[in-house]
Amino acid sequence: MTTGDESKAGLSVPAQEARYFESLAKGVFEIPFCVNCERWHFFPRTCCPHCDSEHLEWRRPSGDATIYSTTTVHKPNGERYAVCLVDLAEGPRMMSTIVQADPDRVRIGQVLRSTIEVRDDGPLLAFTIVGDQA
Ligand SMILES: [Zn+2]
């Protein structure tokens, strides 16, 4: 059943996600910015989660972020890595992976910088640690 209101639901949809990953594949980290309320959001949606505006633009955030929470993932092959909720300097909170760091040294509040890793299953936005406190 459809209500005709899907475009207003503000949910992430394949077209927006595809746009995000297309940019990553080109080495560009871009997320939606709402021109109406001048706030950023993530995941990409058809309308702004803050004000419902559809007047969105893709913009490049600074790449600066801090760790909000962290957990260590243990894979069956013994590999370990940190998966974190990170707060972008622009506001959005997103889940990501910390690379080039011992997971035991990853701490809440550490300062991060975004990087794009090219993996077999596609581009991945990740973060490296650049400092211990914001
Ligand atoms: Zn807005």
Give an account of the 3D structure.
This protein folds into 2 domains: 9-59, no CATH class; 64-131, OB fold (Dihydrolipoamide Acetyltransferase, E2P) (Beta Barrel). It is mainly beta and 134 residues long. The protein is built from 1 helix and 8 strands; from the N terminus they run H-E-E-E-E-E-E-E-E. The termini are far apart. The longest helix has 12 residues, at 14-25. A 5-stranded mixed beta barrel has the order 4-5-6-8-7. The chain binds zinc ion.
Summarize the structure.
This protein has 134 residues and is mainly beta. It has one helix at residues 14-25, and strands at residues 31-34, 39-40, 56-59, 64-74, 80-88, 93-98, 111-119, 122-131.
Number of helices, where a helix is a run of at least 4 consecutive DSSP H or I residues: 1
- Strands ordered across the widest β-sheet: 4-5-6-8-7
By secondary-structure content and strand pairing, the structural class works out as mainly beta
CATH class type of the largest domain:
Mainly Beta
Largest sheet: 5 strands, mixed, barrel
The residue-averaged pLDDT reads 90
What order do the helices and strands follow? HEEEEEEEE
Give the oligomeric state of the chains in this entry, treating copies of one chain as homo and distinct chains as hetero: single chain
Number of strands: 8
Share of helical residues? under 10%
**Uncertain ranges:** 1-9
How much is the radius of gyration in Å? 16 Å
- The CATH level-2 architecture of the largest domain is identified as Beta Barrel
Small ligands present: zinc ion
Strand content: 35-45%
Span between N and C termini? Answer: 48 Å
